[in-house]
Amino acid sequence: MPTITPISRDTHATKRWKRRTDYKFAASEVVAPLVVNELPRAASSLPIGFVAQGEHFVPATVLGLAPGQNLLVAPDGRWFTAAYIPAVFRSYPFMLAQISEDREVLCVLEDSGLVTDGPEGEAFFDEDGAPSRPLADVLSFLQQLSVNQKATQRVCAALKEHGLIQPWPITIKTPAGDQNVEGMHRIDEVALNALAGEAFLNVRAAGGLPVAYCQLMSMQHLSGLVQLAAARAEVAARKLPVNEAGELDLEFMNDGPMLDFSKFK
């Protein structure tokens, strides 16, 4: 289990933290939660669905088609091309922990490899014992994310209340046979188009329409993940050439019917 430590002067006054240089920590994450403010940008390059959290739903992007393999993270830890990077990854190794109904505290993953006792990196606190400017920026980012998470919960509650979220059966054809991706949900487009009267006004007032349209538009990018998965499999089998830097050349994918990778250059 990761070691999540609340940041305090007693614990971190003499410590420093280094900014992440790659996304290897996310290499096994195949789903990442999103908030409503992220959806327009995320929907331009990633497939988005909804995942159940207890009795609620949250939007999430699909990053892989097999357990433990994030197709957007290269072997050297770089994020693939210009695909959107979810905020939950951009805030690593920091997070907010809810310690009461109305109080959150800033925490850090102590065993992330980015917290150090040495001279390198950013200080947690300045000479006066106040949070350093870089740490204050991190806190501000996470507080904004927290506010958006609460707004996202309200939007998804409205979509669920009016029967607009349904299971998304995803079946990927592979050389080894059909592969099912379980647990994802999508907007019921038929139900959305039939929404009228007070129900339509309620969903619109909750901000549900942009969320619904973003999700539906994003589904086209699922084929891009299929192409990436196939390319990785071929590289593993040494069937595709790599460039001088040892990277997979994905130019052949530019002719794909659903996702034009040339626009991400």
What features would you describe in this structure?
The protein is built from eight helices and 13 strands. The longest helix has 29 residues, at 133-161. It has one domain (4-219). Mean pLDDT is 87; it is low at 252-265. It is flat, with a radius of gyration of 21 Å. The chain has a three-stranded antiparallel beta sheet, with helices on one face. Strands 8-2-9 form a three-stranded antiparallel beta sheet, with no helix packed on it. A three-stranded antiparallel beta sheet has the order 3-5-4, covered by helices on one side. The chain is 31% helix and 21% strand. It has 265 residues and is an alpha+beta fold.
Secondary structure elements and their pairing?
Layout: E1 4-6, H1 9-12, E2 16-17, E3 31-33, H2 39-42, E4 48-53, E5 56-62, H3 87-90, E6 94-100, E7 103-109, E8 115-116, E9 122-123, H4 133-161, E10 165-167, E11 170-174, E12 177-181, E13 185-187, H5 189-194, H6 197-205, H7 208-218, H8 222-236
Antiparallel strand pairs: 1-7, 2-8, 2-9, 3-5, 4-5, 6-7, 10-13, 11-12
For the termini, the CA-CA separation is 38 Å
Quaternary class: single chain
Helix share, percent: 25-40%
Tally of DSSP helical segments = 8
Instruction: Return the string of H and E elements.
Output: EHEEHEEHEEEEHEEEEHHHH
What's the number of structural domains? Answer: 1
Radius of gyration: 21 Å
- Major beta sheet, specifics? 3 strands, antiparallel
| Strand proportion | 15-25%
Instruction: Enumerate the strands of the largest sheet in spatial order, edge to edge or round the barrel.
Output: 1-7-6
Low-confidence stretches: 252-265
What spatial form do the alpha-carbon principal axes imply?
A: flat
- State mean pLDDT (0 to 100 scale): 87
Output the structural class: alpha+beta
Number of strands: 13
